[in-house]
Amino acid sequence: MSAYQSLAGASALALLLASPALADEAPAQGWTITLKANGGISPAWEGSKDLSPYLLPGLSVRRAGSPVTFAAPDDSPGFALFDENWLRAGVVGRLKGMRSSAEHSELRGVHDIDWTIEAGLFAEFWPLEKLRARIEARHGFLGHSGNLVDLSMDWVERHGPWTVSVGPRLSFGDTRYMDKLFGVTAYEALMSGRYPAYRADGGAKSFGLAGAVSYEWSKAWTTTFYARYNRLVGSASESPLVAAAGSRNQVTLGAIVAYSFDWAGF
């Protein structure tokens, strides 16, 4: 399962809560619930040269009446524990799909990677009115037990119902994370018969660029088209899985249709 499949699958489980109303204002009643359908094409596995389609649901919840904060399609789902307009911080979670050698002939003999839950913290701030900087630090459970950090910046333009964003991306992983995704043990090298043994070291994993265009048809309906390009670097790019059977160039194209409505329950 691809990175955007993971994002969509995780967002189906996460509740995004906006900051509470200010003390001197009456609190908003109820909640605004947003249902999402997220689909597109992305690498079949991280480092793969093949693209595969995905279509998965998403969900977000915020207090009714609270402003909609900007979120890039590749942000991990989470909620802010601290929100002061120009600075937000909180917790994030992401669910990543499994990598199975049975489904990809080029990975025969190489270890599988189970479903992974990545949980951690995020912080983002707006040094300029239209510029957002964000950092996410996450730790893996189940599929991998490594640590990773994602850095991003987005220039955000809002014009009426249109929101356009674009900006660079940079990802890092420690040795446990990188070796799980891109390493090949001596036994696997023997079993596969096509890859040499390889140990991937921690460091920079990829850099790239992401962009999105959203149109708010009404308060209820919003459509977003997005694209992301990543270039694998360092140990990831030198892995025989990538160099011999995959590609350093990773492309994702997708679209999100979102429907929002108010609910006085909870």
CATH topology: Outer membrane phospholipase (ompla), Chain C
Global mean pLDDT: 88
**Structural class of the secondary elements?**
mainly beta
How much of the sequence lies in strands comes to: over 45%
The structural domain count equals 1
Radius of gyration: 19 Å
Summarize the biggest pleated sheet. 11 strands, antiparallel
Question: How many DSSP E strands?
Answer: 11
Helix content class:
10-25%
Tally of separate helices: 5
Low-confidence stretches: 3-26
Biggest sheet: strands side by side, in what order? 2-1-11-10-9-8-7-6-5-4-3
- Compressed to H and E, one letter per element, the order equals HEEEEEEEEHHEEHHE
The CATH class is Mainly Beta
Task: Identify the CATH architecture.
Answer: Beta Barrel
Shape: elongated
Distance between the termini: 33 Å
What does this protein look like?
This protein has 266 residues and is mainly beta. The protein has one domain: Outer membrane phospholipase (ompla), Chain C. It is 13% helix and 50% strand. The protein is built from 5 helices and 11 strands, in the order H-E-E-E-E-E-E-E-E-H-H-E-E-H-H-E. The protein has helices spanning 3-11, 175-182, 186-192, 234-238, 240-245; strands at 31-43, 51-63, 78-83, 87-96, 116-128, 131-142, 147-159, 162-173, 203-216, 221-232, 249-263. An 11-stranded antiparallel sheet has the order 2-1-11-10-9-8-7-6-5-4-3. Strand 3 and strand 4 form a beta hairpin. The longest helix is centred in the N-terminal third of the chain and has 9 residues, at 3-11. The chain is elongated. The two termini are 33 Å apart. 36% of the residues are buried. Residues 3-26 have low confidence and may be disordered.
